[in-house]
Structures are given as C-alpha cells and as structure tokens.
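Good morning C.,

I know you're traveling, so I'll keep this short. The sequence:
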Amino acid sequence: MTDTRLILYSFRRCPYAMRARLALASAGVEVKLREVVLRDKPAAMLKASPKGTVPVLVLHGGAVVDESLDVMLWALRKSDPEGWLTPEQGGMDEMLELIALNDGDFKHHLDRFKYATRYEDPDPAEHRAGAEVYLKRLEAQLGEGKWLFGARPSFADYAILPFIRQFAGAAKGWWEDAPYPHVRRWLEDFKTSGRFKAVMRKYPQWHEGMEEPIFPAD
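The tokens, ready to paste straight into the viewer:
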C-alpha cells in the first residue's frame, strides 16, 4: 500500500517549526517527519524550498507550504476540532494583529537579545526593554482570561508561545522576577502540557533513504 502521508521538514527547537507542529497535531494531520539540522540542510528540502528555512510541508503532487503561519492555517482549515480559529473573544483579525507584532518587533528584539554576538554592537538591555513593550500587552490581555482570547487556547496562543518560551530561556534570572506573572503562568501551562511534550519529542537527523517517523506519534 502506498503511504499517502505528507512530508514535513522540521527542526525541533525552532519556534516557527514548533508552531507548525502544534497546529498539525491539533488538526490530527499525520505527516512523515524529517528532522533537519540547519547547518546541514538536506538537498531534498532545499529542492522543495530553496529559501532553506523550516517548516517545509510538501503536499501531494509536490506543492509546498513553507511559511509557518501558512502551515498552521492550512492544517486548521482542514480540521479544527479545538476551535483555534474561532476564539471565545475577538476574531481572526485580532489574532493576526497580535501574531504580526510577535513576528515583527518582538522577534527583532528577541534575536538581538538572545543572539547578541550575531549582530554589530547590539545592546542586550535595550533589546530586552524593546521586547517588554510586547510582553506588557500580553500581560494585560492574559490578565483578563486564562488564554489570550478567552478561557481556551486559540491560534494566536500557539503561534506566539514558542517565541515567548525562547525569550524566557534567554532571560533566565531576570525572567523569574520580571513583572509579568500572567505571561509566566501562561508559558508554564504550555510547557507542562501534554501537547507541548508531544510536539517536542526528539527525532534523529533525517538523511536520504531513512524511514521517516510519523508525526504526531501515537
């Protein structure tokens, strides 16, 4: 029997790949997972998506979805059993606005705070302060409900949380006492959830000819 599952190129710790895996798992879309190492990208991935970033979802017939939000939306529009696209409060426009701030200004500051040596004369304290502008908005929003748009998680929560996790990991020591208790609780709920543990399962680096594990795993 021919295996008709799609192919997903992913990198476990990448927040963009993480958000894609979260949506695929929620939607119940099974894929053949190819775990890559970004300094050793497989030729098959680069052929499918020459820009060389993850995630890369290869559909039937060779069509490719290689932007993380597009992978999320593709999966959730096929199946959204947990109602991520229909939050209790607000709607898609509000969610996309909050995600755009994450992917824009917040990610700009996150990169220069976490990876200061990659940039020319960055000031980590300045970029931490820049990131806090966004954290303050999240803190206010999470003060009104358990999740960003109500009492249950939404598309926005899972699109943003992987980046907050990355920031918190880079800001250890400061983060534990920072004035964002609602954001810390939200992140901790995510990190201790079964969903997070399932999407963060470790897989060996994929090489041509290897059998791909099925994601999400049983």
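Safe travels,
E.
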